[in-house]
Amino acid sequence: MALTNRYKSATGAGTAAALILVLVFGSPWYATWATENTDAGTAGGWFLQLLAWPRWYLDSDDSIQDILAADLKAILVVALTALFLYLLPGSQLARARGTLSQFFAGWASYIFAGAFAALLTTLIQSNPSLLGAFKAAGDGTTYGFFVGWIVGLVTLGSWRGTRS
Predict the structure, then answer these.
(1) Where does the pLDDT of residue 93 fall: very low under 50, low under 70, confident under 90, or very high at 90 and above?
(2) Could you give the CA distance from residue 26 to residue 55 in angstroms, rounded to a whole number?
(3) What 3-state DSSP class applies to 9?
(4) pTM of the model
(5) CB-CB neighbours of 120 under 10 Å
């Protein structure tokens, strides 16, 4: 039996997309490749490096606080995406599936998730500061804005709530 959009919840689909984005592009292998093989001075290189923003680590020479903060940030991006997809009412109130409100709700969820994940994890990094938290939230917002459209596309046409 083939699965179609009518069997896919927007929250589940968007969360799965966020998980794949973070697992694949936030991996140490991709992040190293993007840093060494792309030019941040070009649009394509900048975007490929931006994809690696919620990096997670297996090992590093950084302090344990910074490693924990980076790993927690990657986890929070996924968890907060699920939370915001569930809470944003725009697509839940839309009369028809597949409307632009679903796309924008998915996209906005990823923007908010990136910003809040960065803001919260800055507090556990070594030498946290309010300015550092604001800058990190800006980085998370930038990441969510330029990558979140993927989550928006995945949630487009999905059903909301429970089916009987």
Answers:
(1) low
(2) 4
(3) strand
(4) 0.85
(5) 18
